[in-house]
Amino acid sequence: MTDTSIGKITPVILSGGFGSRLWPLSRRERPKQFLPIFSGQSLFQKTCERVSSDRFQPPLVISNQDHRFLIGEQMAELGIEPQAIVLEPCGRNTAAPAALAALMALENDENAIVLLLPSDHLVADEHEFHSAVEAARSAVEGGQILTFGIEPSEPNTGYGYIKLCEGTAQVRKVDAFVEKPDLETAEEFLKAGNYLWNAGIFMYSAASMRAAFLKHAPDIWEQVGKALKNARKDLDFLRLEEETFAQVRNISFDYAIMENEENVACVPTDPGWSDLGSWPAIWESMPKNDEGNSALGEAIFEQSKNCLVYSDDALVSVVGLSDVMIVNTKDALLVTAKDKAQDVKKIVEQLDKANRPETIQHRRLYRPWGWSERISEGERYRVQSMQIEPGKGLTLQRHIHRAEHWVVVSGTLEVTIDGNDELISENQSVFVPLGARHKLQNPGKIPVRMIEVQSGAYIAEDDILRV
Fold this sequence. Notes:
23% helix; nucleotidyltransferase; globular; Jelly Rolls; Mannose-6P_isomerase_type2; Spore Coat Polysaccharide Biosynthesis Protein SpsA, Chain A; alpha+beta; 11 helices; 5-stranded mixed barrel
């Protein structure tokens, strides 16, 4: 029987990173690539769909372990079955996953072609993107390592640049990779015409990448290979061996390989690309009114122009302002001038130094069984809303310092308290005494929505003894 996967491109989606310049919406436990702010879909989901045509094999996802359930949940929503979800035990920049992608592709096909792409970029014109991928294919099959350069529309100082050699071919030789420039240099690049934005998207044959790593970074190739060889399955995930992977050199793919490799080419393209790395980039990508104002959520603009409002749960009114970004979440508010929005990461640094939770998680926390969202909290009590997905539940546990009251808003909940089972339906409630062994399960076909009230001398999350 013929293997129909042979000859197809292996898409490898890198899903690390925090996106600190999109705080307070992007946070470590739910960073920008998983936020459903684009017609109800996330950037991660849009990336998965972009590489789901017949020319591609099922995607391979490389992520840190904190986001594993988000990845599984969002791919399941799309009905996309991944080739694998590989979990990095610690961050090691982008050289390590580039090597890992080649290693895993070679296990299936010595002639495999890899498309390595970030999960948090927006591509408006997918047809143009696919055309660029097809244009790169013959060069990749000939042994070249391909990168994709974006035709610049402005002298942007937030991107690295690719300098092309002279020529007009669809695939151009790369002269140099250039770091993020200052404004004056970026303006010179725009005038020169042979500088492109570096999109951080790469395409290569796995065999060519093996040769490049063995030439320029053999230590990374060897250590990543050992971590993969000793990886272990965990549910639907593949966990790389932690001790070996932690020893991998922490370096970017650009520094380790691309800036040292001579056999590098570029496909210039203009697919409506943005890395959406800041609030002005979000504003640029959104529809606007006649005054240039955009809103995600409820907003009213009066005598204002070129403003952005994002609001989780409150009406935001903007009067007499220009070029201002306003981002309102349930526990944090950001107001920044558009030309200073890159400095939001400095606010994040201050919050991290103060050990504030607002950079780590939102009030709504996503779990393997669903989610919980804090409503109110005070001395000796906490109130939260919860959703438990069909077939999911919380494991058997007990609390030393707190009791709990549960009220079912919708759905049917199966409750076990000290060995006694009971079905609790809409508008019914149950009390869990302090110290009682208990678990929750959703046996139905629809999500269970419920309100939980915790009360006691100590209500922190670590007051859980799992049985």
